[in-house]
């Protein structure tokens, strides 16, 4: 496990399993949330179900407003599921990035499935300029979390489920060919 991901957890973290391009079914429509990486991580006496979203300079896809414009019944079903999982009473502000919602929901779904102590959604960014960090920070504030690069923030959702949000800065040497 890269050090920058391990540092998102308290104590020494151990990677138990990692599944690249892991798909998590969501209500409404026929497209699963395809996560760059799903990992089960052990730290101390705790286990975490984590989705890791790798980024360099690309954005987190469309905003909620763009994705939810004139929503079909399937999109309404999906949005209802996402809001329920994330503990939102209503559709979030339209400037929020939709990808952050469904990647985080994926972690929560898998945490329940694997009966882990917590869920985590970590952005593993290889952008020296920390492109799109502000979109991530804006999303985290919906939960009352203040995030900083290379640190994680823990929140407890209305459901009682624990959620860790983190932005890990990756080693730019991995971008060199």
How many separate domains?
1
The rounded distance between the terminal residues' Cα atoms is 21 Å
> How many distinct helices?
5
Q: What is the N-to-C order of secondary-structure elements (H for helix, E for strand)?
A: HEEEHHHEHEE
Q: What does this entry show, briefly?
A:
By secondary structure, the chain is α/β, with parallel strands linked by helices. The chain is 27% helix and 31% strand. The radius of gyration is 15 Å and the shape is globular.
Describe this structure in words.
- The protein is α/β, with parallel strands linked by helices.
- The protein has one domain.
- Helices cover 27% and strands 31% of the residues.
- It contains 5 helices and 6 strands; from the N terminus they run αβββαααβαββ.
- The chain has helices at residues 3-6, 64-67, 73-86, 98-114, 133-141; strands spanning 13-24, 33-43, 46-55, 118-125, 152-156, 162-169.
- Strands 1-2-3-4-6-5 form a 6-stranded mixed β-sheet.
- It is globular.
- The two termini are 21 Å apart.
- The mean pLDDT is 95.
Record keyword descriptors for this entry.
5 helices, alpha/beta, globular, 6-stranded mixed β-sheet, 177 residues
Explain the layout of strands and helices.
Blueprint: H1 3-6, E1 13-24, E2 33-43, E3 46-55, H2 64-67, H3 73-86, H4 98-114, E4 118-125, H5 133-141, E5 152-156, E6 162-169
Parallel strand pairs: 3-4, 4-6
Antiparallel strand pairs: 1-2, 2-3, 5-6
């Amino acid at each position: 496990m890269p050090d920058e991901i391990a540092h998102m957890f308290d104590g020494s973290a151990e990677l138990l399993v990692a599944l690249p391009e892991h798909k998590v079914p969501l209500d409404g429509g026929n497209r699963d949330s395809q996560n760059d990486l799903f990992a089960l991580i052990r730290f101390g006496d705790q286990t975490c179900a984590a989705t890791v979203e790798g980024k360099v300079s690309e954005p987190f896809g469309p905003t909620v407003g763009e994705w939810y414009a004139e929503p079909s019944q399937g999109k309404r079903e999906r949005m209802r599921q996402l809001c329920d999982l994330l503990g939102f009473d209503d559709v979030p502000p339209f400037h929020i990035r939709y990808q952050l919602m469904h990647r985080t929901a994926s972690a929560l779904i898998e945490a329940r499935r694997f009966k882990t102590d917590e869920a985590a959604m970590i952005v593993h960014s290889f952008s020296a300029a920390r492109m799109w960090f502000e979109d991530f920070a804006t999303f985290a504030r919906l939960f009352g979390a203040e995030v900083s690069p290379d640190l994680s923030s823990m929140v407890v959702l209305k459901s009682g489920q624990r959620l860790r949000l983190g932005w890990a800065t990756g080693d730019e040497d991995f971008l060199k060919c």
